[in-house]
């Protein structure tokens, strides 16, 4: 199937994403300098061990703070 123009466009594009919770000695750096590009038509899985930041990243993508 021919690649469409829409499939060549980034649908999700993250650059230099950082997210932390708390502060001081209890600060947790959940996302450190994250970059991600998902192109139209791509199917992406987010894999990693528990508490590595998967849910935090999905919340950022969904604009949930
Ligand atoms: N609302 C929150 N308040 C404080 N710390 C959080 C919060 N959400 C996530 N964290 C911390 O951020 C880190 C990543 O968590 P999370 O994104 O839930 O990981 P995963 O989904 O990969 O298991 C963990 O150390 C977790 O304790
Ligand atoms: Mg999770």
Report the bound ligands by name, code or SMILES.
adenosine-5'-diphosphate, magnesium ion
State the helical fraction.
Answer: 10-25%
Measured between the Cα atoms of the first and last residue, the distance is: 39 Å
- The dominant shape is elongated
- In the residues, how many domains can be counted? 1
Give the biggest sheet. 2 strands, antiparallel
Q: Low-confidence spans: pLDDT under 50, at least 5 residues?
A: none
Give a verbal description of the structure.
This protein is mainly beta and about 60 residues long. It has one domain (about 5-60). The protein is about 10% helix and about 35% strand. It has a two-stranded antiparallel sheet. The model has no long low-confidence stretch (mean pLDDT about 95). Adenosine-5'-diphosphate binds next to β2 and α1. Magnesium ion binds near residues 54 and 55.
Helices and strands, with pairings:
Layout: E1 10-21, E2 28-39, H1 54-61
Antiparallel strand pairs: 1-2
The protein binds adenosine-5'-diphosphate and magnesium ion (MG).
